[in-house]
Every structure is written in structure tokens, then in C-alpha cells.
Write a structure and sequence with these properties.
The structure holds two protein chains of two kinds.
Chain A lengths: L18 H6 L3 H29 L10 H35 L8 H9 L1 H10 L27 H28 L12 H32 L13 H35 L6 H15 L14 H29 L8 H23 L2 H7 L3 H31 L1 E2 L2 H27 L14 H31 L1 E2 L30 H7 L4
Antiparallel strand pairs in A: 1-2
Chain B lengths: L13 H20 L5 H28 L5 H40 L8 H4 L37 H24 L3 H31 L7 H34 L8 H26 L1
Helix pairs in contact in B: 1-2, 3-7, 3-8, 5-6, 5-8, 6-7, 7-8
Classes of the chains: A mainly alpha, B mainly alpha.
Amino acid sequence: MTTVTDHTDDGHHGPEKGLMRWIKTTNHKDIGSLYLWFAFVMLLIGGAMAMVIRMELFQPGMQLSEPQFFNQMTTMHGLIMVFGAVMPAFVGLGNWLIPMMIGAPDMALPRMNNWSFWILPFAGGILLSTFFMEGGAPAFGWTFYAPLSTTFAPDSTDFFIFAVHLLGFSSIMGAINIIATVLNMRAPEMKLMDMPLFVWTWLITSFLLIGAMPVLAGAVTMMLTDRNFGTAFFDATGGGDPVLFQHIFWFFGHPEVYIMILPAFGVVSHIIPTFARKPLFGYSSMVYASASIAFLSYIVWGHHMFSTGMPVAGELYFMYATMLIAVPTGVKVFNWVSTMWRGSMTFETPMLWAISFVFLFTIGGFSGLMLGIVPADIQYQDTYFVVAHFHYVLVTGALWAIIAATFYWLPKWTGKMYNETLAKVHFWWAVISVNVLFFPQHFLGLAGMPRRIPDYSLQFADFNMISSIGGFAFGASFILFTYILIDCIRNGKPADARPWEGAKGLEWTLEPKAQYHSFNIPPTKVLIEQESQNS
Amino acid sequence: MNEQEYYIPSGTYWPIIGSVGIATLFVGFANQMHGASWGGSIMVFGFAILVFMMFGWFGQVVKESTSGKYNSQVDRSFRWGMSWFIFSEVMFFAAFFGALFYARQLSVPWLGGADNNVFTPELWDGFSATWQQIAFNTPGATLQSGTAVSVPTQLVDVWGLPALNTALLLLSGVTLTFAHHALRADHRNKIIGWLVATIVLGVLFLGFQIAEYGHAYHDGLKLTSGIYGSTFYMLTGFHGFHVTVGVIMLTVILYRVQKGHFSADNHFGFEGVAWYWHFVDVVWLGLFIFVYWL
């Protein structure tokens, strides 16, 4: 049996007092909370930009913004949601949950963990400050294609480049930390195939981050030198090629998509077995499917570039490779559905979010399959169909899982229970409005409405108005969400250590509000096997 | 200390100081590029904060390590951390190598009319689609950024300084391994000798690389010499930066060896730097083959 000591200098087991607790902290729960609150603030900022976009598109004609400002809105909305909201939220969840799930006291490299968070506010600040610079914020789309982002972009682009560098440092350090934690801090008796799926999916995601983020850093570095030091990476006048930018960007960009969805798969794989009161169907196939998806994500980037221009052999290869991803993804959806099959199901709020995740994410997956077909993509590319597709996978996929995880683990984080009635009202409000928001965009895209345009012709007017109404309603649902969270933290009723009847996992063996250092004594083999998803 | 205990380090201010430093550095750099006279000094100030942070943070870790606070689990965490950090560096270089391969194999031949691009030679009067001579026949050409293309007069001679540098760097990998063996056998004087040899070889490499840059620059090969100049200087430049960092790290290790920080079976600091140095070695081999030779 191992012994316990705490090596913080002051010798106390609790956190420090005051603001310095948050600045100096090496505690995975403190850092997880910082990440989650940062992501939440960014979600609201990015969401406000989405509201501006939907207001402008409420009717045809120019309503309230200049085209240039509209482009700044779409660009910054995308960048902030991807790099400021979804990614930090999942890192926050990983920080909070992984040490508890693997029976560890904390992360493997706690000081680096602190730094990977505390770079983010600086990166976010630099990114947002571009709004106040001459020429305004970046307006070239979140994919910042050259030459729009090199030859034709304002000076503020260089600040954007450095913000991306900082975000990259943060992500890489976060990923290194998670790998070291999972492989080195795991309870000695826990085998790899005993690990909960959220831990597995985050481990795999970390490899994606380490492989992809440095390539993004390379891409923006080339942009920087093309813009300021006369290199010709993306300039055909000097023998370079703007298409090279797209190749490098999407070599990062496609794994990035799975960086944002694999941890979501992990979350859903915890919630569905709990409320179906059955073990997860096909645990090992879930692990292998996640790894296959991760591997495939590195070799399909060209499907973002079908209409850019590519040899036919290249288009065919990328099309077939893309289709392959449907196989492991199908395995996952099949397993979630099979887990629910003949289960004793109840529908508490986390389960509602998880089931709607399976349903709505699958819609996004199928529209992705359509976009992966070369001849079809040439019709769909750069239309609202694409916008609808990636919002179904990112909003009703990634964000849905983040919200599901918040309700599922909130009792463990706060020791208190949220208001179930209000949470259900919030769920139905959000799930109806999000479909009113995004479903019509499929029709708009198929009818030919281009994305990233502030004005449109009259035949698109009705669906745009419906979409905007859904958008405002969905935006307003976050006011209720905020209230439910604050109400839980302040006035929630005390929760049990295991508030969900069917829940398995080491985190539920901790105190109702998990103690500051999760496991000072590694859990026993018996306990680990009892709480394993693989049984 | 008891091998069975978990170790969780105390909180420090170093991370937030590092964030302030690197943000200051970047903001200064961006303003410098945009012509603000104060940008440079802000940038240097940010860099100074970063250096201060590294001294402080690493110093604290060294102190904690030598006072015996760390256990074998902490050691393993450092190993995982360092190896995946190096992998991320590999991927950073991969982006630039990818750009090199793409330009050489695809975009430059396409500009010269390969495949279905038969019309491009008419668009580019006197354009040479040969890799190293990419900028040779484009006098007066201007990049989209408005910069005039610098036309080189001569090819880089691969069997001169670059070949010598390859030998130096490979040799430094060998001397570093000898130093490691000496460390494992606890021969303090031998460690110092081989480490000094490694550092000298590294410094020589950097010196020759600067001389090589001088020649190339004199012959008109610049960052602005089209895609060849771009990939040449960005790849060798980032590599040279990594060698510089490696030399500094080796020097710190030399100092720590003299201080007696390492024992025969506990010297992760040494090994981490050695891994880094070998990584820099391997990148150079790639550079020598694909940038200079082929």
C-alpha cells in the first residue's frame, strides 16, 4: 500500500486564498475550472458575433453592417469558437476528469498545466484586440487562405498570427501533459483496456494535437515571412503556390476536426451507459474505432480542396479515404444505439443531451458524407450546406457533448445538484431552436446560397428569416443555461457521491464534491474492475 | 524519499511571468514590423522577461531535484514530456519540409508547364522551372508583397561548407554519446572533456553556417530569391536557431555537471538535452540531403 503526503510548500491540503490561488495554482481542478470559465466567456463572445451575423442575414439587403465588418464577424466567430471555446472547454473537462478517472492525485506536469492555461487569456486578448486596429480584425475567413491573408490583409493579421502561435503553444503543452498523465499517473492496477473511454479519446486526441498544431504553427510562420520578409511560399511570382497554403492548413485542419469531436465521443460513451443502466456495448471496438478515426484524419485533408484544383487521382484518393471514416464512425453510433437497446432507460438532462447528440451528430456526419463525394461537392462547396454540415457536427456535436458533460459531472464538481426542471426546459428550448437555426441552412445551400456573404437574392429570404429566428432563440437559451449553472453553484441541493443510479467510474467513488487532490492513495484492483466500463 | 509517494509541485509565479514575457515579445515584434520605433525595445524587453522566467523556473526545478524531492514517477513524467515535445518540433519542421517537397515536385514544374499547365510558359517570360535556378531568369520580377526578387548568381556548393558541417554535427553526436557513457561510469573529468568537445563542435558548426550564409547572401541568394531562397533560409534558419538553443542547453548541462548535479543513474537533465541534440542532428541530415545535395 502506498502512503500519502502533500508536497505543497505550505503543507496545507486545501487551496491558497484569494486571486493568487488561481494564478499560481498547480491543481488540476482549479486549472480545469479556469479553462471551463474561459471557454464559457469565449462562447458568449463568439455567440454575440453569431447574433450579429444572423441579424444581418435576417432580411435580404444590407441591414446593419458593412460587408467588411460582416466578414470580420464570420472570421472571428469561427476562430473564437474553435480555438477559444470548444478546444479550451475540452481541455478543461480533461483536466477536471482525467486524474479522477484514472485514480491519480493530479496531472503529471502541474506547473506546465498552469502555463498552458495562462497563455490563453493573452492569446485571446491579442486576437480580440485586432478589432480596434487600423483595417479592423481579420476578415479572410477562419481558414485564412493565402493570398487573402497575405497580400490582401490588414496589418492586424500579424497580431492574429502571433495569437495563433500562442494558442498552439498552449494546446501542445496541454496535449503533452495529458499523454504523460495517462501513461504515467494511472493507478498502478489500471490496465490500458480498463481506462474509461473519455480518457482513451483524450489520449488519442493528444496525439492529434501534437501532430497537427505544430504544422499550423509552420503555416502561420510562412504567412508571417511572406507578409513581412519577402519569402514566396504562397506566391506564384516566386515559384510558390497559394494552394500550398491550403494543403498545409488542411493537414492541420482535418485532424483539428477530430480534436474537437473525439473527446465528445468519450463524454457520450459515459452518459449513455449510465442512463441505460447497461455496460457500454463494444468497449474495445470503441477504442479501436477512435484510433482508426484519428489515423484516417491525417490522410483525408484534400477533401476540403476538391474544387481548388487537384489531379483527378488525388481527388479520387481523398474521396475514398474520406468515405472510409464513415466505417469507424458508424461503429460508434451502432455501439451507442446498442447500449440503449433494451436498457432500463431514464431521461435525466445529461441523457437528453447525449441522445440528441447521437441523433444530430449523425445528421452532420451524413451531410459530411455527401460533401465527401467529389462530383456532389463541386455543387455544395462554399454554400450554406457546408455551414449547416459543420454546425451540426460542432454545435450539436462538440458543444452538445460539452453541455452534456457539464450537467453530468456538475454534481461531482460542486457537490450540488442543478435544477432538473429548469435544465429540461433549457434542453428542449435549445434542441428545438438549434434545428430551426441550422436545418433550413441545408436547403439554402442546396439552392445555391453562398457562405460568407452579407446579402443574398430574394429567393433565399424565407429560410434565412426562419434560420435567424432560430438563431436568436438559441442564443437566448444560453441566458437560461448561465442561470442554471449559477443557481446550482449557489443554491443547489447537496448531491450524493454517486448522483446517477447507473453511473460507473472511479470519479463517483470520491466525495460528493471531489476532494482537492483526487486520489492520494491509488484505487485497488477490485475497485478499478468494479468501476471499469470494459466489463 | 519514498518511491511510493506522489509528488505534486507547489504553485509558482513563473508560468504567468512567462505568459507576460512571450506576449510582450510578440506585441513588440508585430509593432516593429509595422514600423513603430519602440517595437524593437518592447520586443527585447519581452525576451528579457522570458530569459528571466527560464532562469527562475528551471532554477527552481533544479533546486527541487537536487534536494531529492522528486521520485522516479516525476522522472518518467519529464521523460514523456520531453520526448513528445521533440515530436512536436519534428512536426514543425515537417511543415517546412512539406513546403519544400511540394514546391519542388509539384508547383515549380507546374509553373514550367508540366502536366496540364502547358500555357503557363507563355505567361512567364524567361521563367526557369529548375529548382535551384528558380529565380535565375526573372530579373526585375516583383513579388506580390512588392519586394523585388533577388537573383542569385551561383548555386550553393554542397561539398564545401555544408558537407564539412554535416561531419561536424555527426561527430558532435558521437562525442555527446561518449560523454553520456562517461557519466554512467561516473568519470567526472571525461564527461567534462567530451561535453566541451560537443559544445566546441556545435559552435564551430554555427560559425561555418554563418560563413555559409555570408557566401550565399553575397551571391545574391536571399529570403527574397523566390521559393528556393524561402525554403533554404527558413529551414536552415530554424535549424540554426535550434542548434543555438542546443548549445546553450549543453553549456548549462556542463555547468551542472561541474556542480555535481548528476549521478550515474539519475541524470534526466543530461539525457533530455542529449535527445534534443540528436534531434537537431537528424534534422540537419534531412536538410543536407534535401536542401543542399539533391
